[in-house]
Amino acid sequence: MSRLEKVLIVDADTCTGCSVCELVCSMAKHGEYNPRKSYIRVLRNREMSVDIVALDTRCDFCNQCVDWCLPRAIWFVDPAEAAVIRKQHTIGTFPAPRLAEVRTDD
Length: 106
Ligand code: SF4
Ligand code: SF4
Prior knowledge:
Layout: E1 7-11, H1 20-30, E2 40-45, E3 50-56, H2 64-68, E4 74-77, H3 79-88, E5 93-95, E6 98-99
Parallel strand pairs: 3-6
Antiparallel strand pairs: 1-4, 1-5, 2-3
Bound molecules: iron/sulfur cluster (2 copies).
């Protein structure tokens, strides 16, 4: 599957920063609840009280994090739809930043 086939969209106003998506991904891909091994990461800026969801390039778009996000704050779209969302600058809704790779050895 191409890396560009899907883009994760984040509704930052809806995301609660609960980290369930991180736990679900680490369990699905590494068999343990360990956010450090997740391919989806919730980056917290405590000073600005904001949570930014970012996606590792090793994500295989299995959709499990999306299925378990109870507030429905994240979903995948195709690249064309992501471009429209980016252009519209919908407040609080944006394509997730991509992380090159996260460490999984600890
Ligand atoms: S994207 Fe969903 S599951 Fe992940 S931290 Fe935000 S609300 Fe929680
Ligand atoms: S879609 Fe990607 S980030 Fe989400 S659980 Fe699957 S591999 Fe992890």
